[in-house]
Amino acid sequence: SYELTQPPSVSVSPGQTASITCSGDKLGDKYASWYQQKPGQSPVLVIFQDSKRPSGIPERFSGSNSGNTATLTISGTQAMDEADYYCQAWDSSTGVFGGGTKLTVL
Amino acid sequence: EVQLVQSGAEVKKPGESLRISCKGSGYSFTSYWISWVRQMPGKGLEWLGRIDPSDSHTNYSPSFQGHVTISADKSISTAYLQWSSLKASDTAMYYCARLNRGTWEILSWGQGTLVTVSS
Prior knowledge:
The complex is a heterodimer of chains A (106) and B (119).
Chain A: E1 9-12, E2 18-23, E3 33-37, E4 44-47, E5 61-66, E6 69-74, E7 83-91, E8 94-97, E9 101-105
Parallel strand pairs in A: 1-9
Antiparallel strand pairs in A: 2-6, 3-4, 3-7, 5-6, 7-8, 7-9
Chain B: E1 3-6, E2 10-12, E3 18-25, E4 33-39, E5 45-52, E6 57-60, E7 69-73, E8 78-83, E9 92-99, E10 106-109, E11 113-117
Parallel strand pairs in B: 2-11
Antiparallel strand pairs in B: 1-3, 3-8, 4-5, 4-9, 5-6, 7-8, 9-10, 9-11
């Protein structure tokens, strides 16, 4: 079955750039989405179709996807961005999530 | 306002059956597929399956095929996730989610239903 691999944790200082990777076989041939989940809340879509931002998502969130790796980049990271982030893609008709990355802003 | 409102928390015993629901409002229910996603305590998101409410066509994750059933009643804009025989390992938060038809990103999520299975 298809798998997506994320680093368990990423740390970043406020104002700096955070990058979270998601790896999967030929992931660049698929669309990747990214979801943010804060404690006790439902996830929220922050990036879809590799690099598009839904309305209401700050411009500091961006995405890319090429080869075997999709990347979520948060520029000028703020304390409010501390959360778990999940990548997601589709393998045929089956949805697959990465294991999640805990972003710590310290 | 687009909303997915899920049924309330459940406490069940192993071997019991259960059906939880997800009611859509503020949009055309048959225009968007619904997915169900599991999150075990302290763990990540897992995709269970999806349904097209317009014709009840379903796709399941191989990991969950045969253990859960996804259905929908378009007349009342409601999707369901059900188990015929619960296990303790089914204890989790379950989310329904609305998918964008064609590109399949999850546009919105329900508030989650906590299912606790304990003897």
